[in-house]
Amino acid sequence: MSGLTARARVGSRGLDVELAVAPGEVLAVLGPNGAGKSTLLDVVAGLLRPDDGRVVLDDRVLTDTKTDVAVPPHQRSVGLLAQEPLLFPHLTVRENVAFAPRSAGRGRHESYATATRWLDEVEMAGFADRRPRRLSGGQAQRVAVARALAAEPGLLLLDEPMAALDVGAAPAVRALLRRVLRSDDRTAILVTHDVLDALSLADRAVVIDRGKIVEEGPVERVLTRPRSTFAARIAGINLLSGKLGADGVETVAGLVHGTTEDACTPGDGAVAVFGPTAVAVHRAHPEGSPRNVFRVRITEITGIGGHTIRVRAEDHADGSPGLIADVTAGAVAELDLATGEDVWFAVKATEVAVYPTA
């Protein structure tokens, strides 16, 4: 078993990527809307022929533009779980799940036995005779999981499978997917915008931006030590990128001081990363120890749970996300903060990590 290797260039959509997924590994694909995530899945699934590319799953060539190989989607051993369950409305739950093995040429009895096994696995056996219209969103997505797995795919593609679920159904489906993926060591690609999905389900993550992979590594590292703007944004972490100088990182927000990794070399690209809880908000320029002080304009003040308030500054001149500070409700009241006002954000150098860009 060699897992998946995929290389794809789609000129009309600006995609040019190359990646590998080891057997039994779950790879999270992150990135902003329009970055090329769904295009990548379409290429792997055989729904889109790349201008140039090669897709190999478990030593079987599925796509090769140089030798004109293009295995049809239904013959690829690739399962797809999308945002919407897409169940056949005229079939029962059992018939929906049995559709995959039936399409593979198995008999009715064997296909129904397979459907029953997977419905039991996703805790939907009691709904086998219902039509999809009588299911809740979470129940329908469970059936969709069973249907995808009943085909026994060598690779499972998960295209934001929790995006259309309400807040009550999403955790249950997420737990189900985690159990199924971990217990069977399934190879999968997960496209998501949700940090929790990536942390719960994936082993490794890649970040695609403007059609190219700009960052990759273990999920925890990508989300806690991001080297790309998008990863920092979804992780809720401040990131300022620039060039490492003799005394800090030269960024669009000014010179940023921090603790620098040994791998950083002056003159190279670097990022300065710090959490929003490390940011203090001041009405006047702060005195004392903070080495990093930024003049910002407040664009948003929102509660994020408990007594914590997030204060977001306007985006930087280059379009990169503005800084964020997490402070107490008491601090917001004491400072009398409001959107549109100019304040000072201060961060101690000991709270800032500096490391090379990807």
TrEMBL record:
Entry-linked InterPro entries: AAA+_ATPase, ABC_transporter-like_ATP-bd, ABC_transporter-like_CS, Mo/tungstate-bd_C_term_dom, Molybdenum_import_ModC, Mop_domain, P-loop_NTPase, Transp-assoc_OB_typ1
Segments forming a coiled coil: none
ABC transporter domain residues: 1-235
Entry keyword Cell membrane: yes
MF annotations from Gene Ontology: ATP binding; ATP hydrolysis activity
Name of the protein this chain belongs to: ATP-binding cassette domain-containing protein
Any single Pfam family the record assigns to this protein: TOBE
Residues in Mop domain copies: 287-356
One GO-annotated biological process of the protein: molybdate ion transport
Keywords, in A-Z order: ATP-binding, Cell membrane, Membrane, Molybdenum, Nucleotide-binding, Translocase, Transport
